[in-house]
């Protein structure tokens, strides 16, 4: 057997052992591998033209060939996603706290927030470009308007879903509303907040790409737009692949932070339903 | 304890003449007094009376149960004692002051049916949590020490570091009781604290609670659906009826202390049990459907 590296216990790490370690991602990998093989086979069998749908091998070749442009574009897009997402989190949390803390103002604000959510955000992109030019600012703004909503709504649900008996308990020892907020409501809302953050982080990637479509000089969205004018479909797919991996990476960063910050949260298992 | 009858302590009763059931089983100063208490709730903009003209006296250091069907206002009455609801009419006094003042002096400890532990804190931190929230000046270490000794009192020594998800229902409820006791309140108000537990755990918890009460002699007001539980724990049971919500009768429980498993077979126990059952059934029949 081939020796990859030595594990912490001093035992040699074999491929078979590594394969066992990958228990959780083994079956998704097998499934993805199957889909890719099928894709490749169909393209070759029916001789689909590359500009319509390139085979996986062609996409990988394009990925390697354009690796420098893709790396630079990824950096630009990642920066937009990062700043946009952080701003969304800030705005979302602030909106939720304001709605809960100032009840009258909250009742006025909440319907407007929902109304605003129904404005097609993609249509706002050209306006933001018009106002702020081709730089970072319009992308961040676009991400915020797309991504703050799930954060605000989930945080709000978390703040409101504290059991009434716990609020009664705090009141029975004379705790003030702000103390109940700080010591019970906000910590209680964290698992909900992270549910919102996970939705928002994928929205942030979409926001960045849409922003770049509307007007940019760099980034993966710009690269896709440019490649499509050249009918360079393999490069489009290569860029799409990178976008997806970028989104995935951001998602798992959020999940990692959640595990570290909210270890007591009920574990989310997407497959196992109750009962 | 001999059931000495004293006319000085009137504990009862709406609209009926004081008979022997209206008299407390022992002569101690009143700790909780309700006079002419009425509470209105707003339901869809309309005022609705939950109960009217409730009169009640709980002697200091006694263990008193409120029993009755759903909707008889027993939980509401407990909430008025806890200062969570302000009565529309009449007055409530806890240790001679209003419940709101009593809250400020930390005289009141609350336990609900749901343990409501904070999932991000372990058993010890949960037990100390209310005291730390109530008292800014108390040192963290001191609160933790008090919480730890209360956890020992409820028989949870060794489980201090466990998280709520690692505890059974009964254990979680013990933590909730320890949390209330950590406040060192004069009055312990319990709203169906064992309502969600299985029968055996319930009996275990009842014995444990009685043990704690005998050691600390706090005044306990205990809301329950269970006749057994009410008889086993209480010195006095107030039977409440619904529509209109009222106290039907106050029944002193003469089962001798200390009460153990054998108490369930005591003749006094059985007669109190059947009397309570009769009153509840009668109340149930009379309430308009």
Describe this protein's structure.
The complex is a heterodimer of chains A (275) and B (289). A two-stranded antiparallel sheet of chain A has the order 1-2. Chain A is an all-alpha fold and 275 residues long. In chain A, helix 4 crosses helix 11 (233-261) and helix 7 runs antiparallel to helix 9. In chain A, strand 1 and strand 2 (12-14) form a beta hairpin. Chain A has eleven helices and two strands; from the N terminus they run E-E-H-H-H-H-H-H-H-H-H-H-H. Chain B has a domain at 117-184. Chain B contains eight helices and nine strands. Chain B has helices spanning 74-81, 99-104, 123-134, 140-153, 169-182, 199-216, 227-233, 267-286, and strands spanning 30-43, 46-59, 63-67, 89-94, 108-111, 187-191, 219-224, 236-241, 246-252. In chain B, the strands form two sheets. In chain B, strands 5-6-7-3-8-9 form a six-stranded mixed sheet, sandwiched between helices. In chain B, strand 8 and strand 9 (246-252) form a beta hairpin. In chain B, helix 3 (123-134) packs across helix 4 (140-153) and helix 3 packs parallel to helix 5 (169-182). At the A-B interface, helix 8 and helix 9 of A face strand 5 and helix 3 of B.
